[in-house]
Amino acid sequence: MDETKITNAFTVDLEDWYQGIGLAPEDWNGYEKRLEMNLHKLLGLLDEYEIKATFFILGHISKESPHLVREVHKLGHRIGSHTYGHQFIYELTEEKFRADLDKALKLTEDLIGEKVRSFRAPYFSITKRSLWAFDILAELGIEHDSSIFPTRNYRYGIPGAERFPHRVATRNGEIWEFPLSTVKVAGYNLPVCGGAYFRILPFSLTRWGLSKINQEGHPFIFYLHPREIDPECPRVTLPLPLRFTFYANLKETQGRLHRLFSEFKFAPMESVLESYKLR
Ligand SMILES: [Zn+2]
After folding, report:
1. Cα torsion angle, 166, 271, 73, 42, sign
2. Domains: count for the chain
3. Percent over 90 (pLDDT), the chain
4. How many CB atoms lie within 10 A of CB 35?
5. Could you tell me whether strands 54-57 and 7-14 are parallel, antiparallel, or unpaired per DSSP bridges?
6. Is 80 strand, coil or helix?
7. Neighbours of ion ligand 1 (CB under 5 A)
8. pTM of the model
9. How far is the CA of 206 from the centre of ligand 1 (A)?
10. For residue range 214-260, what is the model confidence (pLDDT) as tens digits?
11. Ligand 1 centroid to 50 CA: how many Å?
């Protein structure tokens, strides 16, 4: 490996496939559980390239499948939170969000025996309507966040937001934000950092965008869900455009991850931010 390469953050939102389709937790029963199988496939891939990642754990997973959370932690990956119930933050009241996150943090911290200090919002749902969430994150001990997407999307995004890691001042102290990575193309911030973008855009475009961010002297942050390496993900009827983005190119993901892992250097988000702070 070229040691002069910039180290980037690899992150996983740890949830099962039916938890990311807009349902409330009480409607999650009855769907086929595929998380354990997909997680093991993903952990195997990370191990093959000796990559440690940050896993943003859904509190519901800590409750229902504690062995998986313990396993991820034991392997040396970093543990963050992804709330308990996977709801859009901008649809919650401040009180509901605080209660949900508090529950998630306690469940996960009890399992791993340490404080959880990193966070990612479900559906990147910290937008201009829910910036109040930062005060609550800091209040509950979160120091590192990756929820802001500096782009325009029908469900998320703050189009003009800062594109690289930066401090956010809150009523309860400072948080470091690692925005989801975008590359500037003709004045537009094009997302090139994982998920559906990774599956839909040609790999050559992803590679170009990610290399450009590194050439500009910054690390990028990449995200993935375990379900995205599962071409057999059960088909359910979803509204457009989610139907398209949810199922597009699932069979390509594993092969593309091999290429990504061979060409870029990765570490957990926390380590990448720690070195960024020292600049
Ligand atoms: Zn999620």
Report:
1. positive
2. 1
3. 94
4. 22
5. parallel
6. strand
7. 13, 15, 122
8. 0.97
9. 21
10. 999 999 999 999 999 999 999 999 998 888 899 999 999 999 999 99
11. 25
